């Protein structure tokens, strides 16, 4: 078989056949090339969307829900409509004890504060947080650490700053850890700095995190909670957890069971599920369109070879009369089919890769890219190429069988 592959006569015959039908061969190759080109570009674009989604939400625990208190919309148990509600630390304990499937229940506070370092100032978002927040929404630390349990216990005046704040308040190349900054005229020791986030930031100027207990003391918040972040354990429905939490809070705060305005929530897990479902559907559609186009192109190659066999009927008859065996005729035609599909596939992959590079250079750059690193995995490319070669071999069997089914004497009589 290997000897046949390197036989110059074999390749001369393939070249001669292609040269005789340049137009037909070119159109056929373009058809197959277009199929794998579409597959590569669409898969790359889908991967770019997925990467961009992970860039935006990768720091979050995806099965999370945010809950906060608002005002009632229905009178209940002697309380009038419009009663203001406030979450308490005791609510969190009740939620932890009574709701199943919880992984983290993290309280938070937020405010805006004037921040000063020497002669540089800025107005930034200040958050009161527990160490568990770093597990729910991961902080990509550049220097130092995040808030720890000792900070909470001792109500330390320490802070973790975002990279954007460092750029505004510190000199270039100045090491921030151990430095003091003033937040509303109170000195805080910087213990950590993290890279700027994508989603969940307090604005373009960045965030500052201080211990939750310190926030309560400094801003006189008592045992109140601004809002809570809740994550579910794997296998538990975050939508059901959301409903159970809100129902429990209504019971704890004497709110009408059908009051839908008393407690607000944002189900990140549900929203992310919608996006991931869209990405999965996009990938499925990409494979369907790409493979369907590939199959159509491969069938076109089969039709071209059938026409070629018809045109070469007399030549095949002469070869058979001179002693050529049927499998040699088959091998020749199958080889031509595989060659055409391989060339078309290689061109489609190359052009698809070039287009993805152009997309990355135009849409994948800047602070807010539309697509992030639109690429296709090598195993996927190899699988597509192997599938194309297998299809080319199978489709080549049809004209090959047609060629050897003609009796030599009848082929010689063909006009």
Strand count, sense and closure of the main sheet?
A: 6 strands, mixed, barrel
| Mean pLDDT, all residues | 81
What oligomeric state do the depicted chains represent?
Answer: single chain
Rg calculated over all Cα atoms? 34 Å
Helicity, as a percent range: 40-55%
Structural class: alpha+beta
List the secondary-structure elements in sequence, H or E.
HHHEEHEEHEHEHEEEHEEHEHHHHH
Number of strands: 12
Low-confidence stretches: 200-204
Write down the overall geometry.
Answer: elongated
The strand line-up of the biggest sheet is 3-4-9-6-8-7
Please give the count of helices. 14
Q: What is the count of distinct domains? A: 2
Strand fraction: 15-25%
Distance between the termini: 33 Å
Give an account of the 3D structure.
- The chain is an alpha+beta fold and about 425 residues long.
- The chain has 2 domains: about 200 residues, no CATH class; about 200 residues, no CATH class.
- Helices cover about 55% and strands about 20% of the residues.
- The strands form 2 sheets. The protein has a 6-stranded mixed β-barrel with strand order 3-4-9-6-8-7. A two-stranded antiparallel sheet has the order 2-10.
- A hairpin with a 2-residue loop joins strand 7 and strand 8.
- Helix 4 crosses helix 9, helix 10 packs antiparallel against helix 12 and helix 10 packs parallel to helix 13.
- The two termini are about 35 Å apart.
- About 0% of the residues have low confidence.
Give structural attributes:
single chain, 415 residues, alpha+beta, 2 domains, 6-stranded mixed β-barrel, two-stranded antiparallel sheet, 12 strands, 55% helix
